[in-house]
Amino acid sequence: MTQETPRNSPAECLSRIRVVLSHTSHPGNIGSTARAMKTMGINKLYLINPKEFPSDTATALASNADDVLNTATVVGSMEEALAGTTLQIALTARRRELAHPLQTPRQLAPEIIQTIQAGHDIALVFGTEMSGLTIDEVLLCNRMATIPTNPDYSSLNLAQAVQVFAYEIFATLADDVSYLAESRDSATHDAMEHFFTHLEETLSTIGFLKPDAPKRLMPRMRRMFTRANLEREEVDILRGWLRATTSTERWPKPPQ
Questions:
Q1: What's residue 252's pLDDT?
Q2: Is 226 found in the same domain as 100?
Q3: pTM of structure
Q4: Domain containing 211 — which CATH number?
């Protein structure tokens, strides 16, 4: 009989974290990332359209973290990589217009631990080595993080960034695994994306969203609702409200 991992043990909590690498161009960075992950007890690696994988170079630089590489999930889009998560954290080295407030990994660590102890999956999202994440990729996430560095030399490679972020989570988890996580049924990434599609369709139907105007409203709406960290039931309520908004039977007919 195999021994079950205790609920909310460090290992069980860390199993709810996935590291997402988008369009990685050099396989060595995938291997180095796997090594950084395993050092901090994280083993779920998602790769979005990597240029080269599997790779002997990746295996060599993984330095015996082959199990992380062998179980890596390769997907074709950011939406696939984030499916099923409730907290998606985009790492960036620069400020972006219409994006979420910047936080450090240390500032985000308590929320991350609270989320995974509540039984929800999270994603740490990293972009390409040269240009990072696109604005569209950032908008699919509901948190944004940056690693403080020397302003005169802020050069971190991909695996180093993963290592720093993973360490902050691991260290915070090791310091405190006793407090009770908030009991919340947070909305999944999939549910939020369906809601945003429904919202855009409804706003267009009622004439509030002008299709020929610059598309700045929807990114702002995304920011507002993702900042609220909605629960599943709250998303259902909002979608019911959207359906009622466009219903032809929502208002009683005037007396004849």
A1: 53
A2: no
A3: 0.77
A4: 1.10.8.590
CA distance linking residue 87 with residue 143, whole number of Å = 7
User: Residue 250: what pLDDT?
Assistant: 53
Instruction: Collect all residues with Cβ–Cβ distance below 8 Å to 161 and sequence separation of at least 6.
Output: 91, 126, 147
Query: Is the N-terminal amide bond of 54 cis, ω within 30° of 0?
Result: yes
Kindly list the distances between the CA atom of residue 153 and the CA atoms of 75, 148, 149, 150, 225, in Å, as whole numbers in the listed order: 33, 11, 7, 5, 35
Give domain status of residue 3, yes or no. no
**What confidence tens digit (pLDDT) does each residue in 115-124 have?**
999 999 999 9
Residue 225, both tokens: 């609702």
Name the residue range of residue 203's domain. 189-245
Please tell me the predicted confidence (pLDDT) of residue 130. Answer: 84
Low-confidence ranges of the chain (pLDDT < 50): 1-2, 5, 177-180, 251
User: What is the spatial distance between Cα 241 and Cα 235, in angstroms, rounded to a whole number?
Assistant: 10
Same domain, 220 and 138: no
